[in-house]
Amino acid sequence: MPTIELPKPIREALAEALSRHLKDEFDLEVKGFDAVFLLDWIAEHVGPHFYNQGLADAQAVVRKRADDIAEAVAHLEKPARF
Asked: Fewest 10 Å CB contacts: which of 6, 50, 61, 76?
């Protein structure tokens, strides 16, 4: 799987949000490069699990839609006479 690459503004905003969360919830100061490094670690190790679940969810939707289409097409069949 390719590395998860986030646009710089989003990456910085997420690192800041992570920093605030760690301060608010755990009274832990993690800022700047350390927050970005932690975010990168989370993205690398946890991100693929969320990504894979997203793919599984998308596949389920596509399968359901394909089944719906197949059923709709089957209803269009006309009886054939010989």
From this structure: 76
Indicate the residue type of 1. Answer: M
Quick one: which of 51, 28, 37 has its CA closest to 14?
37
What the block records as the tokens of 45 is: 């190790």
Listed in sequence order, the residues at least 6 apart from 31 whose beta carbon sits closer than 8 Å to its beta carbon are 19
pLDDT tens for each residue of 17-64 = 999 999 999 999 999 999 999 999 999 999 999 999 999 999 999 999
pLDDT confidence bin for 3, thresholds 50/70/90: confident
What separation in angstroms does the CA of 75 have from each of 5, 61, 71, 72, 82? Answer: 45, 21, 6, 5, 20
